[in-house]
Each structure stands twice: as structure tokens, then as C-alpha cells.
Amino acid sequence: MPTTKSIQSVIDGVHTELIRLNYSSSSICAYKRIWKQFVQHAEQRDQKNFSVEFAEAFMVENYDYPHIYKMSSHTAKPKIRKIRAIRSLQDFYAFGIIPSKFFPPQKPFPENFQSIYNEYVTFCTNEGYSAKTVILYTFIVKEIALLLDESGAKGWNELNDIVINRYLTLQQGYSKHTSRQKFLALKRFLKFLLEKKYIQQDFQDYVPSVKLYSKTKVPSTLTIEQKEKLLQCIDRGNPTGKRDYAILLLASELGLRTSDIRNLCFENLDWRQGKITLFQQKTGNSLELPLPCHISNAIIDYLKHGRPHVSEPYIFLKHRAPYHQYRDMYNVIKKALTTAQIPLEQDIHKGLHLLRHTLATNLLSKGIALSTIAEILGQRNITSTEIYLHTDIEKLRKCALDPEELING
């Protein structure tokens, strides 16, 4: 249990931690303004010592916590920023650190840990791991190395349970899926260190297992009317609108993933035969889809009247110099949802995957076979597509049992 601490000592501790983590001065000032209100609130109630419960009550009273997370992002954002400042006090009081998803980029990789890191990169590559898996596995090693270096350790042989527990604590802000991936990667590295005798103790049991249950969440979708409204709200009279409209069409009509739209190049488009061919970044499998006229016309309109005239291989580019590959696909649909005034719950997925889910659901409602939908979406396994069965309300209604029939046998 945390020892008794005054509210001011907790605030001072968090302030020091924010500086150590290289938070910007403007962010720290914003936190301090919230803390000042919290201190005034405590003084009015003669509360000198910090407690998680007292901070919780403050957020409930002043920021509609936790109901604020169910409101639209536009109205919730200011309060959520304030909640983050108070929750940083709770985290520091409970754990002695602020869970952070990113280590300070200014910190170089410690030299004492470099040789074994390089050996592990080679090991992962030789094991046949995909490039994406190697990046994840080695990123975990970098995080652990930074924590070890920060603790004063000179090499991997000084790895101990304290460092591992601190690393695990830092992961508490991640989703279950991400935590599971990172914990599996950590276990694999610990096994490597033990097998190579770089450490003498097996720390794998210190890392918890995160269980995920498939098909527990129904995909979020738009109605046909909402999807049409979303497309119609785009201002196609300017270059950015032309680009965004083409992107949204590719996601909503062809179901392309964000990564595949982002990496779409001229060589992927066959104008004469009216098809689009690409290798999916997520699966590594090839995908070939028809390219309907209205989608090809939207892309051509963007290429002729919107895209910067530079020799980049990618179709979609930033519209500010330097004119490189456009990557902020989330912002495209976020702007469109706001402009179209389509209200969505706080916990609903608002990325381009929302349109991919919508396409799959609409195809299913038209009686298209799951195998065909899986092929259109480029999914490797039909079980990934079966989740859309939960979104077809009319077909689910037909499956419902009559209570009277159950009672009467």
C-alpha cells in the first residue's frame, strides 16, 4: 500500500517526473493549472493528504467522470485533458511513476546493451519472423535497455525483477491486445537471454499472460444513410477534398485497409482493365479487386486537379511541403464525421476500419456469402469474417427463439 503523502508532495513528484520525461513546458503549465484547482478543492474540504478516492471524487464532481468518456469527442476532449492531469497524480501516488507509452526520443540507445541487442535482431531474423514482428520484438528490447540504463546497470546480466516489474507497470495504459503482444515479446527475449546464459535467473514467470477472447466485440458500423451523408459532406472543390473523397471511397466501396490505402502506388492501378492489384501489408497476400468507374474517376480527378506535381510513387500525398506520402488517414474520416455531424459513442472505432466494417455488414445483408466477403476484404481466414454475422440484426432476429415455445416444449 502507498504510504501517506501530502497532496503537494504528490504534485511535486509528478512535476519532476514530467520534466524527466521531456514533457513540453506548455503541457506542464496546463497540468499545473488543473492541479491548482484540485488543491483549492482540497483546501475547501480541509483535505491535506492525497488519496486515490479523493481524486476520484474530484473528477466525478467536476468532470462528469467516468461518463464523460461516452460523450462525443468534441465536447469531451477539454474535460478528458483535465482528467489526465488528475489521473497522473493517482498513478504516481500508487506506482511512483507515470505510465508512459513513449520513452524520451532524445535518449540514445545505451552502448553497453548494443551488442546483445544486435545479436537478438539477427536471431529473430534467422528464426523467420516477419519484418513487423522483428520490429515489435526489438522495440521491447530497446525499452528494457533504457530502463536498465536508467537504473544504473552496466549490462544485461544486471536485469532483475525490479526493472521487469517497473516495465510491466508502464504498460498499464495500453489495450489488452497491445499488452498481450508486448508481454509475449518480452517473454521471448527473456527466454533468449536465459538460453544464451546472459542472465542466470528465469524471469518469464514474472510476466503475466493476457487472455483475449475472440469475437467479444461487435464491429462498429454506419448505416447506409450515414455512409452516403459522410461522402456527400466532402468539399470536392479543393485539392484536400478531392484526396479525402478518393480515400473514403476506397475504404467504403472496396474495404481497403488504412495501410494499403496509404501505400497505394501508381503501379497498383490498371486503368485499362479497371482493376486494382496490391500486396496487403497486414497479411502479405496479394489482392485483386475491380476498380469501378466512380472510384477511378475520383482518383483521376485528384491526380489531375489536386495532387502536388512531384515524382513520388504514392498516390496520396501531403499537401504541404515536403510533399511526401500522406499517412494521417485517421484525420480524413475524423473530419468527415465531424462535418457530416454523425454522432458516435465514445468507445466506437472511428478510423477507416469503420467503413471497412460497414461494407462487410452491407454485403452480408444483401446475402453475399461469407467466403466472398472474406475474399473482397482480403482476409486470410473466414473466421475473421464471421464476426459480421453479429451485425446483421434482421438475420439474428430470425434466429431468436419464441419464449412461449420454450415454455410449452
Report how far apart the termini are: 56 Å
Assign a percent range to the helix content: 40-55%
* Unreliably modeled segments: 101-106, 395-403
How does the major sheet shape up?
3 strands, antiparallel
Task: Please state the average pLDDT score.
Answer: 82
N-to-C SSE series? HHHHHHHHHHHEEEHHHHHH
Number of strands: 3
In terms of structural class, how would the helical and strand content be classed? mainly alpha
What overall geometry do the principal axes of the alpha carbons give? globular
Please state the CA-atom Rg, rounded to the nearest Å. Answer: 26 Å
Strand content: under 5%
- Order of adjacent strands in the largest pleated sheet: 1-2-3
Compute the number of helices: 17
Kindly summarize this structure in a few lines.
This protein has helices spanning 7-20, 25-44, 52-63, 73-95, 114-126, 131-150, 161-170, 176-195, 224-232, 239-253, 258-262, 293-305, 329-339, 353-365, 370-377, 393-399, 403-407, and strands spanning 269-270, 275-279, 286-290. The protein is an all-alpha fold and 409 residues long.
Written description of the protein model:
The chain is mainly α and 409 residues long. The protein is 53% helix and 3% strand. It has 17 helices and three strands. The protein has helices at residues 7-20, 25-44, 52-63, 73-95, 114-126, 131-150, 161-170, 176-195, 224-232, 239-253, 258-262, 293-305, 329-339, 353-365, 370-377, 393-399, 403-407; strands at residues 269-270, 275-279, 286-290. It has a three-stranded antiparallel beta sheet with strand order 1-2-3, with no helix packed on it. A hairpin with a 4-residue loop joins β1 and β2 (275-279). α3 (52-63) runs antiparallel to α4. The longest helix has 23 residues, at 73-95. The radius of gyration is 26 Å and the shape is globular. The N and C termini lie far apart (56 Å). Residues 101-106 and 395-403 have low confidence and may be disordered.
